[in-house]
Write a structure and sequence with these properties.
about 140 residues; mainly alpha; 4 helices
């Protein structure tokens, strides 16, 4: 089985959820007439498409930096639609958590695999039982 990056999985999940939020924010911005209709749709749908497409490139050079740029763009929507400062800020914090936690878990997984290989147990893991005397 191929080892998958937890950092990449967490980032992909977050970007997928965030694409829905940006789409709904686009609808809200259009309904509230925060700018011209075509401008709202162009910005909103472009960001939505980028959020959906970005997980395909995660793991490549500069891809996580591009994710940070998307987070900044989403927070900056708050200049036209004020609640997006809060919602975008929340997602930016979750993005930071995904980067930190994902990297930590990936490093721990690599260390575990190295430790397991050093004991010569590549596939088989010994199982043992502990018996407890009941008095």
């Amino acid at each position: 089985m191929k080892n998958k990056s937890i950092k990449r999985m967490l980032a992909s999940i977050l970007l997928a959820f965030e694409s829905f939020i940006v789409f709904f924010a686009t609808l809200a911005g259009f309904g509230l007439k925060v700018a011209d209709g075509p401008v709202v749709w162009a910005v909103g749908l472009t960001l939505t498409f980028l959020l959906i497409a970005t997980p395909a490139i995660l793991g490549r050079k500069g891809s996580y930096g591009f994710g940070w740029a998307l987070q900044a763009a989403i927070v900056s929507i708050g200049f036209w639609l004020t609640p997006m400062f809060y919602i975008g800020g929340l997602f930016a914090c979750m993005w930071a958590w995904a980067m930190i936690a994902g990297s930590t878990i990936d490093r721990a997984k690599i260390a575990y695999e190295r430790e397991k290989a050093s004991f010569g147990q590549t596939e088989n893991v010994e199982v043992f039982e502990i018996e407890i005397d009941k008095k």
